[in-house]
Amino acid sequence: MRGGGLLVAGTTSDAGKSVVTAGICRWLVRRGVKVAPFKAQNMSLNSFVTRGGAEIGRAQAMQAQAARVEPSALMNPVLLKPGGDRSSQVVLMGKPVGEMSARGFFGGSGPTAQPRSGGASPGRTPHDGRQQLLGTVLECLAELRGTYDAVICEGAGSPAEINLRRTDIVNMGIARAARLPVVVVGDIDRGGVFASFFGTTALLSPEDQALIAGYVVNKFRGDVSLLEPGLDMLHGLTGRRTYGVLPYQHGLGIDEEDGLRVSMRGTVRESVVAPPHGEDLLRVAVCAIPLMSNFTDVDALAAEPGVVVRFVDRPEELADADLVVIPGTRGTVKALAWLRERGLADALARRAAEGRPVLGICGGFQVLGELIEDDVESRTGVVEGLGLLPVRVRFAAEKTLARPVGEALGEHVEGYEIHHGVAEVLGGEAFISDDNGHSLDGCRVGEVWGTHWHGSLESDGFRRAFLREVARAAGRRFVPAPDTSFAALREEQLDRLGDLIEEHADTEGLLKLIECGTPSGLPFVPPGAP
């Protein structure tokens, strides 16, 4: 097999496309197939930095891990990062190229982008811009298919978004251009899955329908035999088979694209909470700030036995928290205003005065400082921060994208940086240093901590040392478990996804699709695209 491919589409957003794609990748690599994930266009505030310094969606980074390959910009050539006001930052091949309105991006009138200083517009007109993007994603897909035995592509939303079909480059647009077979995933837990499968197919043009090979039912509860009459009728109505009925399982998922769920949430939310290693629990409150990004940073905390993580938006919810985390955001100034409007800013100031732990990550670190000068992200100029750390932040046109390594609390720590804000630290203690003790990033004053490094809490030794500091300051008899490995937990989760495909999908049928493409002679389901 060389250059095989498959597109995993969905009846809706959050139908399970990311999970199924990751599961297929893990199942294939365990069979000895050299496989890579691909998503032409992603819209997400949760992103990751490759070793080559490219920014891509976290879901694609985790799918690459499922495939046991190094993530690259080829796997997610277009990333849209919403910034409010109906606009998004466009990240092309891992680098930001400008801000674009939704109307401009999806083919309306007006300019396609408003590039920052040094940025380049994806195109001069909506049509030209979309054609250029389609060319880019097809080149990336072709390069992956020339390198790997199989490429498992993930769609976005639904392929039957008929208002967007003309400008689609991620669902049937890429499937048509690259002649990819398509399986459609439906979440039966939401209800209406048969209508969704039928309607999705019937709203596509004959040319698009010819690539729809069949369906995958996701999150089924109960006896599969009770579902089989419906699957038979669906086959009779559409001429297409179902390639798997995946059971509902708690705690399955990969890093979420958006939303308020902890992607390692099975450890603390959808299964029995693991008992603490010491005598006490630790309670972590995460401020659900606007345009929250990379909230997956708290997954490693949630994976610790005895650590309970919850998202909050009211000051009274901080009262019993042993640690408050202010996560990253694509709108630092907007998040700062929100914290003040909600009364959370005052609650954070009281915590700091009382010596109770607060951690700010990336944008959360920036709001803790004294001053923010932003002529790039919000273009609001100079704004006063919360003043809890002696830090001044100036937003630069150039985005920092890095994979740094250092030491903190006597432990090795790794992370990744995605930010326009440049911090000038004017006092306090260094948070993260190099081997010689020179400050690399962040700041600490008392029990208030701040860092630009995402993912640092995934470093097991550092996370345990930090939680010991939090427990001491909070007066809790909490002891971090000595053997929690976040990397091992993630691998275990990815293996569970591979098991899900291997045990509950028609793997031989999927292999045939990947190798040979969509079966010929599939019937047209009227009425088709209007």
TrEMBL record:
Ranges where the CobB/CobQ-like glutamine amidotransferase domain occurs: 283-460
Protein name (Swiss-Prot/TrEMBL): Cobyric acid synthase
Active-site residues (renumbered): C362 (nucleophile), H454
Annotated keywords: Cobalamin biosynthesis, Glutamine amidotransferase
CDD domains xref list: CobQ_N, GATase1_CobQ
Region span, Disordered: 104-129
Family assignment from sequence similarity: Belongs to the CobB/CobQ family. CobQ subfamily.
InterPro entries attached to this UniProt entry: Class_I_gatase-like (IPR029062), CobQ/CobB/MinD/ParA_Nub-bd_dom (IPR002586), CobQ_GATase1 (IPR033949), CobQ_N (IPR047045), CobQ_synth (IPR004459), GATase_3 (IPR011698), P-loop_NTPase (IPR027417)
Ranges where the CobQ/CobB/MinD/ParA nucleotide binding domain occurs: 7-258
Associated pathway: Cofactor biosynthesis; adenosylcobalamin biosynthesis
Species annotation: Streptomyces sannanensis
Regions that span the bilayer: none
One family name in Pfam for this protein: GATase_3
SUPFAM superfamilies named in the record: Class I glutamine amidotransferase-like, P-loop containing nucleoside triphosphate hydrolases
Task of the protein: Catalyzes amidations at positions B, D, E, and G on adenosylcobyrinic A,C-diamide. NH(2) groups are provided by glutamine, and one molecule of ATP is hydrogenolyzed for each amidation.
